[in-house]
UniProtKB/TrEMBL annotation:
Cofactors named for this entry: L-ascorbate
Family, as annotated: Belongs to the P4HA family.
Residue span, Fe2OG dioxygenase domain: 431-554
Function: Catalyzes the post-translational formation of 4-hydroxyproline in -Xaa-Pro-Gly- sequences in collagens and other proteins.
EC id: 1.14.11.2
Protein name (record): procollagen-proline 4-dioxygenase
A Pfam family per the record: P4Ha_N
Compartmental location: Endoplasmic reticulum lumen
Classification lineage: Eukaryota, Metazoa, Ecdysozoa, Arthropoda, Hexapoda
Principal cellular location given in the protein's record: endoplasmic reticulum
Natural source organism: Drosophila persimilis (Fruit fly)
PROSITE patterns the record matches: FE2OG_OXY (PS51471)
Keywords, alphabetical: Dioxygenase, Endoplasmic reticulum, Glycoprotein, Iron, Metal-binding, Oxidoreductase, Vitamin C
Domain of life: Eukaryota
Length: 554
């Protein structure tokens, strides 16, 4: 049976008739990922042009809704990838049937070509087939496949996380790893600070984290992460790594450079020699690494997470037993005689206490409602610049309260909270009292710091320094997110409705109390919402002595 022009056209045209049909047979993963990667790379410039237009900024670190949207988008894209593979496979199936249809009549000619061609029908079929069919096949082969799927990917690319958002996510995991002493093998098993999570980490994830550790000068941890990355390389996925532009040689080279930075040159040489493509370049690379030592990024861009702070944050840390008490406070203000609050003493010097069940669920919900549209990147006070600015030292969103645009209901709940603070502390709350809501996402933290400014500024000149701090915890944090006082070896978990209160100054002298150094441990699971209120000393001038010169800066 010969393959005539009409039969060839009917075979090739099957692809057009089956455009909307799915096929469960997949092409090799290399082809799929190569084409997808190429389509994704073509979006780099498009994203840059469009991501600042109509799309509002996302908060993947903090907003569960934004991360959920990203997860659903990933599922859509995987489904789209499968559809694209089906289209490619469908075309492959058509081409294979075409090849079979053309090959079958030629099998009779094998070994007897002259006899075969002496048949005029065979000669006619061959000449017509060579003239017509291959041109049709060329046209069919040139037809683009899966254009709808490529367009879908192109349109969705504007919703992908930006470079900055991806860096934020990597840095968040860095803070979790560093603070909670998570080893690479623990990450792969989903073990973080004593708790198991149903997750693991990929080879590329390990390499990204190792690269960040290297940039920040944590060469030992970088080497651990990179070595683990190499251990996790699966030969079955070499083609996938190629498509994703993940070269194992890059891991070997960066690992060797880490070893050189740690003065382990022989180990670095061994590492380079272990990769076939690097053997002949190993000495030249070692000379390069030796002569051009790495300079870590500026400390201003790095979180300050000293080990004494990290140890307090960890699950293994337990506050030291004390003779302090839990009791009902009925004496601070007359109101507490009618409605005493459960108070837990954490420290008497400096004075730190916790009140439980201070805010109701309705009050917390109202605070969250009025602050949600006000949230933006949190700022910290820069003593050198004498101003508030965004910083890597605090990774969170913040909103100042009260706000001029706040509705009546919002203002009412803020006033109730201010009265509640007076009832808890006995201190004066005035009309200028500011509060700040802070919302931390996963990996969100605040470097260790003092709440007082100890600097001359318009605020301190008008109202004095921050004498005391009141911290409302608005939600339960599943894991991490405690407040840690380093000098006191004290950890306060984030629990819904709880209030933490402490003095930033010594009672007798009003000197600034450096023992109140504290920070917010990185959140591991969930989010953390707090409401902070700082009470200034000059507002209390009629009920407490104002400061003396002491250890203040003028």
């Amino acid at each position: 049976m010969s393959c005539t022009s009409s039969s060839m056209c009917s075979v090739c045209d099957e692809s057009l008739e089956k455009d909307d049909k799915s096929n469960t047979t997949m092409l090799p993963l290399l082809i799929l990922l190569f084409l997808t990667s190429a389509a994704g790379q073509s979006q780099n410039q498009t994203r840059t042009e469009t991501e600042t237009s109509s799309n509002p900024p996302k908060e993947f670190m903090i907003s569960m809704a934004d991360r959920m949207e990203l997860l659903l988008l990933d599922r859509e894209l995987i489904s789209n990838l499968v559809q694209y593979a089906d289209k490619l496979q469908e075309k492959v199936n058509v081409l294979q049937r075409c090849a079979k249809a053309m090959r079958t009549p030629l099998q009779a000619s094998k070994g007897r070509e002259e006899e075969y061609l002496s048949n005029p029908l065979h000669s006619f079929q061959l000449i017509r087939h060579m003239h017509e069919d291959w041109s049709h096949l060329e046209k069919f082969m040139r037809q683009p496949v899966g254009q709808d799927q490529i367009s879908f990917l192109k349109n969705k690319a504007t919703k992908f996380p930006s470079v900055e958002e991806t860096e934020d996510a990597t840095e968040a995991i860095y803070r979790i790893i560093l603070t909670y002493n998570v080893q690479p093998a623990d990450l792969d098993q989903g073990l973080i600070d004593g708790m198991h999570y149903n997750s693991s980490i990929s080879v590329k994830d390990c390499f990204s984290l190792g690269s960040l550790f290297f940039q920040w000068g944590e060469y030992g941890k970088a080497a651990e992460m990179l070595a683990y990355s190499l251990d996790q390389v699966n030969p079955e996925y070499y083609s996938v790594y190629d498509v994703l532009e993940f070269e194992s040689s890059e891991v070997f080279m960066l690992l060797a450079r880490c070893l050189v930075e740690m003065d382990m040159e022989e180990d670095a040489r061994t590492t380079l020699m272990a990769h076939p493509a690097l053997v002949e370049h190993s000495e030249r690379l070692l000379t390069l690494y030796r002569n051009t030592r790495h300079v870590p990024v500026s400390w201003k861009l790095m979180p300050f997470l000293p080990e004494e702070f990290n140890q307090i944050c960890r699950y293994s840390h337990q506050n030291k037993p004390s003779r302090l008490h839990c009791r009902y406070n009925t004496t601070t203000t007359p109101f507490l005689r009618l409605a005493p609050l459960r108070m837990e003493e954490l420290s008497l010097d400096p004075y730190i206490v916790v009140y439980h069940n201070v805010l109701s669920d309705a009050e917390i919900a109202e605070v969250e409602r009025v602050t949600e549209p006000l949230l933006k990147r949190s700022v910290v006070f820069d003593g050198k610049e004498n101003k508030m600015s965004t910083s890597k030292k605090r990774t969170a969103l913040g909103a100042w309260l009260p706000d001029d645009n706040m509705d009546v209901s919002g203002r009412a709940v803020i006033q109730r909270i201010l009265r509640r603070i007076h009832e808890l502390t006995g201190l004066i709350m005035n009309d200028r009292q500011d509060m700040q809501l802070i919302k931390y996402g996963y990996g969100g933290h605040y470097d260790i710091h003092f709440d007082y400014f100890n600097t001359s500024s318009p605020i301190t000149k008008a109202r004095g320094d921050r004498m005391a701090t009141v911290l409302f915890y608005l939600n339960d944090v599943k894991h991490g997110g405690s407040t840690a006082f380093t000098d006191l070896q004290l950890k306060v978990p984030s629990e819904r409705g709880k209030v933490l209160f402490w003095y930033n100054m010594r009672g007798e002298t009003h000197d600034l109390d450096s023992r109140t150094l504290h920070g917010a441990c990185p959140v591991i699971d969930g989010t953390k919402s707090i409401l902070s209120c700082w009470i200034h000393e000059l507002d209390q001038m009629f009920i407490q002595p104002t400061y003396r010169s002491g250890n203040r800066l003028s």
